[in-house]
Design brief:
The complex is a heterodimer of chains A (552) and B (438).
Chain A (H helix, E strand, L loop, with lengths): L1 E6 L3 E8 L2 E9 L5 H13 L9 E5 L2 H7 L6 E6 L15 E2 L1 E4 L5 E6 L2 H8 L4 E6 L7 H12 L4 E4 H4 L5 H31 L5 E5 L5 E3 H4 L9 H14 L5 E6 L4 E7 L2 E2 L7 E2 L2 E2 L7 E4 L5 E6 L2 E8 L13 H7 L8 H10 L7 H28 L6 H6 L7 E5 L3 H12 L3 E2 L7 H8 L5 E7 L4 E4 L4 E4 L6 H18 L7 E13 L2 E13 L15
Parallel strand pairs in A: 1-4, 4-11, 5-6, 5-9, 9-10, 13-21, 21-22
Antiparallel strand pairs in A: 1-2, 2-3, 7-8, 11-12, 13-14, 14-15, 14-18, 16-17, 19-20, 23-24, 23-27, 24-25, 26-27
Helix pairs in contact in A: 1-6, 2-6, 8-14, 9-10, 9-11, 10-11, 11-13
Chain B lengths: L2 E8 L18 H10 L7 E4 L6 H5 L3 E2 L9 H18 L3 E8 L9 E2 L10 H13 L4 E5 L6 H7 L5 E8 L23 E6 L5 H19 L3 E6 L16 H11 L3 E4 L9 H12 L20 H32 L2 E10 L4 E10 L7 E11 L2 E10 L5 H17 L4 E6 L4 E4 L1
Parallel strand pairs in B: 1-2, 1-4, 3-5, 4-10, 6-7, 6-9, 7-8, 9-10, 14-15
Antiparallel strand pairs in B: 11-12, 12-13, 13-14, 15-16
Helix pairs in contact in B: 1-8, 3-4, 6-7, 6-9, 7-8
The chains are: A alpha/beta (552), B alpha/beta (438).
The complex binds zinc ion (ZN) (2 copies).
One zinc ion binds next to helix 10 of chain B.
Chain lengths: 552, 438
């Protein structure tokens, strides 16, 4: 049986799934100070009456990394950067970097070897235990980065993260920020997974414990320590996977998870959630962390409602609970209750909340309707921005332009507490059918339980210079000139499977994500070729789950 | 927040003239790599746009293709012209301060009449954009500053009779480089005399000479002309490492030029040092246009860079004086030329299409009118096109053409038809982008 745990801002959910059926589920309050306590509480509920040995895998999705990063509760990082000539690095990283000399060009040629100003190096590294190293075009040649890493190791850093090992894709700033954030949360994360593993083992579960990543894939705890930053934003990822498990839309669709504080919006195509064109932004800084094409807006059932000259303003601050269940200020839930869209709490109190907001001779219904309309208008605006963003995928060929990437939604899916009230109104406004799948209350934990392990890696071949490189593996090998696509795929998939085996991830479904091949020309003659290949262990779910509603 | 720069990036990885031609599929590959690696697309100062597809009517506001423009282009041309239109819209809508269409295929060697591909170009993407700006946004005065190493003879050809379009090109002297034209005496036809400015530079001219020229003559003329829109034909083959030319401009030189020029819209033209120059020149131009620090954008390999010799500046100074005189006296010169030529003015052109070996003979006649801008007739005959030998008579009118001129233009077309001398007889409506087969 698969055990999934999702630690959210308000609730910690756990679910036990067997052959696509929910065997047991639990929802407990998240214990903010001692997250582990809530996890164990939820575990105890779902495991009550079962032998711990029935659990074949545990997947945890937690806000611990997200919270540490967004709240800045991290430790200081020594960030060593080799930017070479190019654009200024000013204000592009979350911390003042130490700028080392050393530069690689776009073909992977070392223009300048590493050299370090010892005095500045010493001054800037004082008091720091963790470090990150990153160089421009290091994904084409890691030698400088590796040398600098050795230097840092000798200087006594306990853990050093390297930009090109996080992602083999181009974007030096994103790789640098990723390495920085991994270092910044490393010790906190290490402590957390140590406790989780310990707690789970103490309950007699011997199965492998994995953690969810932002791209919806899972990874064993020990492997996650290699790149803690990848476990950021797992809450939204879990929610998307939950929808995939419960009711993946066959058509182009938009899912909306309406919680207490936020609404998470995701896009779907061909039965799968869409991954973002670019990596996630953390605390305002772009990273190479692969994530779903999602937006989280500060609008939920507990959102504060204010009257302004322009009409009603919903959120982003949260004041909940609703006045209908004893709160002090009017919330979006009160409007939905007053309209009879959802049925909980005291309708009379919800109506009272509405009349607090009245100025004109609007009836309670009219006020509530205006509030709901303002809410869905806000959501609709965000959806429009997301569509623009999605449609902005790079167009490199005529075919890219003609075929287009236009996303046209055909359906809305609502999950979370506020969805039944809000999403049908949005559907009406957008002229789209709406679906609220059963079992959606613990969708996140279900998503965690059934998500697949994933790994991604890239390979670049330059036959003119006679080498290939897998940055994620730190591999650079000499090659013969007649290097083909199939050889490239063999090498990279073999490495991915070897990694999967090493971490006992039992994943064999390797797929190609991107492939590019260009000739290199010198003086009108073809001298060789460049190949770029990206492959992954496919993310997604192990199997679908049949939902059922449970009253808590 | 309003971004400083709108960027349309279309490297056309599936378009090439031939696999080892300078215009080959990976021409912008290393540029793409550099821009991605620098993280330029993540900056809030830069807003990315996806190119739209241009319509045939957009092309036909400028060009008359023989037998038809649609039979001469590839789909990639519709994207590069569409990319320019997108760039124009981004600025005119006020979403961004200025924009850069980093697109291919290029266009500044494409003339008004098109029989095939010449100088790597089939359609003139800047001219199509200028016509679009006029049609859609009512822009009148436009300046096009061509910083490609080659003379933009296509752009010159298209705007030669238009006093509202100031075309300024500096380039390596035509006696030493394709297409062989671009001398100061090619200054525009009588009504537009002085609004076509050619600044041929000596081979070897570098940052120093180019900036001396910009400060000494280009900037003052631009300030005096007061264009509503400045377009930069942002070719990059003045770079010291370019394989097709012999100049000594650096990425810094180009970036500083973009900074000083502050073009509303830049459009990529040539530049064939695909590994050693383009990644850095483009990064420099983008940062300069986005009003960001470009001072550290330096080619890693500057071994091929030579200091310009003293004669380069001497040529620059001579041009500043010569063109300065032309500019100051242009209205007087124009009146005199108009008085001399009477109702019509003609020029005969022999045009060679290097790519396909086409030779075209053309007679172009401007018909002047006191009531309107007059109209244009063109007789063209070309040998060796992919359709064999072909000929056409073309009359060109626009929305503002007066009824008398319009009638005359159609009469001329019908007369030409009667002679049975021409394979095709067309009337082009420049405003609508419509070409009528007579
Ligand atoms: Zn050129
Ligand atoms: Zn007239």
């Amino acid at each position: 049986m698969l055990l999934g745990v999702d630690v959210g801002g308000t609730f910690t959910d756990a679910v036990l799934v067997n052959s696509g059926m929910i065997i047991k589920q639990a929802k407990v309050k998240t214990t903010q100070e001692e997250v582990l306590q809530g996890i164990l509480q939820a575990l105890d509920i779902v495991l009550a009456g079962s032998e711990p040995s029935v659990v074949s895998r545990v997947v945890v999705s937690s806000t611990i990394v997200t919270n540490a990063l967004t709240e800045g509760k991290t430790e200081p990082v020594f960030l060593a950067v080799m930017a070479g000539p190019g654009m200024s690095t000013k204000e592009r990283f979350p911390t003042e970097p130490y700028l080392a000399d050393g530069y690689v060009d776009h073909r992977g040629k070392i223009i300048k070897s590493v050299s370090v100003n010892e005095k500045v190096f010493a001054a800037m590294s004082v008091g720091k235990k963790v470090a990150a190293v990153s160089g421009k075009f290091a994904v084409r040649n890691q030698k400088n980065e590796q040398e600098l890493r050795i230097k840092l190791k000798e200087a006594g850093f306990e853990r050093i993260f390297v930009g090109s090992e996080i992602s083999g894709e181009l974007n030096f700033v994103r790789r640098t920020n990723s390495a920085y954030f991994s270092a910044a949360v490393y010790n906190k994360f290490k402590e957390f997974i140590g406790q989780v593993e310990d707690g789970i083992r103490r309950r007699g579960i011997t199965a492998q414990v994995q953690i969810l990543k932002a791209d919806g894939g899972t990874i064993p705890l020990a492997a996650a320590l290699e790149q803690p930053v990848e476990t950021v934003f797992t809450g939204p990822a879990a929610s998307v996977l939950g929808i995939e498990a419960l009711d993946a839309p066959a058509v182009n669709a938009i899912s909306l998870d309406v919680g207490g504080t936020t609404t998470d919006i995701a896009f779907w195509s061909g039965g799968f959630p869409l991954l973002a064109n670019k990596g996630a932004k953390i605390a305002g800084y772009p990273t190479a962390v692969r994530a779903f094409h999602m937006r989280s807006i500060g609008l939920g059932g507990d959102s504060h409602i204010r009257k302004t000259a322009q009409g009603f303003e919903i959120g982003p601050d949260r004041v909940g609970p609703a006045m209908a269940i004893g709160g002090k200020e009017p919330t979006l839930s009160d409007a939905l209750i007053a309209l009879g869209c959802v049925s909980f709490g005291d309708v009379k109190k919800a109506r009272e909340a509405m009349s607090f907001l009245a100025e004109t001779d609007d009836t309670v219904e009219e006020i509530a309707e205006k509030i709901v309309l303002a809410s869905v208008t806000k959501i609709e605006g965000t959806i429009a921005e997301m569509i623009r963003e999605w449609n902005l995928q790079p167009v490199y060929t005529v075919n890219d332009v003609i075929e287009g990437t236009e996303f046209v939604p055909e359906k809305l899916i609502g999950v979370g507490g506020g969805a039944p009230g809000l999403i049908p109104v949005l559907g009406m406004k957008m002229g789209l059918p709406v679906e609220i799948p059963a079992g959606a209350m613990v969708a996140n934990a279900i998503g965690a339980a059934v998500s697949r392990p994933t790994l991604t890696a890239t390979l670049r071949v330059d036959t003119t210079d006679g080498y290939y490189i897998i940055p994620e593996a730190g591999i650079r090998e000499k090659i013969q000139r007649d290097f083909s696509r199939s050889t490239a795929e063999e090498i990279l998939s073999a490495w991915l499977i070897e990694q999967a085996d090493k971490w006992q991830m039992k994943a064999k479904n390797v797929e190609v994500m991107a492939y590019e091949e260009f000739p290199t020309i010198h003086n009108y003659y073809t001298t060789g070729k460049i190949i770029y290949l990206k492959m992954q262990l496919k993310p997604g779910i192990l199997h679908t789950v049949t939902g059922r509603e449970v009253v808590f | 927040m309003k971004s400083n720069l709108g960027l349309v990036f279309f490297p056309a990885f599936d378009w090439m003239i031939s696999p080892t031609h300078p215009e080959r599929q990976e021409r912008l590959l290393y540029t793409r790599d550099q821009l991605l690696e620098e993280g330029l697309f993540d900056l809030e100062q830069i807003r990315e746009y996806k190119p739209q597809l241009a319509e045939i009517s957009d092309l036909q506001r400028v060009h008359i293709g023989i037998p038809a423009i649609s039979r001469l282009i590839t789909p990639a041309h519709l994207v590069s012209a569409g990319g320019c239109i997108t760039a124009a819209d981004s600025v005119m809508s006020g979403e961004v301060k200025r924009s850069f269409a980093l697109v291919r295929p290029p266009g500044h060697h494409a003339m008004r009449v098109v029989h095939g591909i010449r100088g790597f170009c089939v359609i003139n993407i800047e001219a199509i954009m200028a016509a679009y700006l006029r049609q859609k946004y009512g822009v009148r005065k436009i300046a096009i500053v061509d910083t490609d190493v080659h003379h933009g003879d296509g752009t010159q050809d298209i705007f030669y009779h238009d006093p509202d379009t100031l075309y300024i090109s500096f380039h390596q002297d035509g006696r030493t480089l394709y297409p062989g034209s671009g001398f100061p005496n090619e200054a525009g036809s009588p009504a537009a005399l002085g609004t076509n400015i050619n600044l041929p530079l000596l081979p070897g001219t570098g940052d120093e000479g180019v900036h001396r020229l910009f400060d000494g003559i280009i900037r003052p003329i631009l300030d005096d002309f007061e264009p509503e829109i400045i377009i930069n034909s942002a070719g990059q083959d003045n770079h010291f490492s370019d394989p097709l030319a012999s100049m000594s401009v650096t990425a810094q030189g180009y970036a500083r030029l973009a900074d000083k020029l502050k073009a509303d819209i830049a459009v990529l033209e040539g530049g064939y040092s695909v590994e050693a120059a383009l990644p850095y020149v483009n990064t420099g131009i983008i940062l300069a246009m986005a009003e960001m620090d470009y001072s550290n954008v330096i080619e890693p390999d500057q071994t091929g860079l030579r200091r310009q010799d003293d004669r380069c500046n001497a040529r620059v100074d001579e041009l500043i004086r010569q063109i300065g005189d032309l500019w100051t006296n242009r209205q007087k010169l124009s009146r005199e030329a108009l008085a001399k030529c009477g109702d019509t003015w003609s020029r005969r052109k022999n045009i060679y299409y290097d790519e396909e070996g086409i030779s075209e003979e053309q007679v172009e006649t401007v018909h002047y009118c006191k009531q309107c801008n007059g109209y244009l007739t063109i007789q063209t005959a070309a040998k060796n096109t992919r359709f064999g030998s072909q000929s056409a008579f073309i009359a060109i009118v626009e929305e503002s053409t007066c009824p008398v001129c319009r009638q005359e233009a159609y009469d001329e077309a019908l007369k030409a038809k009667k002679t049975a001398k021409w394979q095709y007889v067309f009337v082009q409506d420049k405003t609508k982008g419509n070409i009528e087969n007579i």
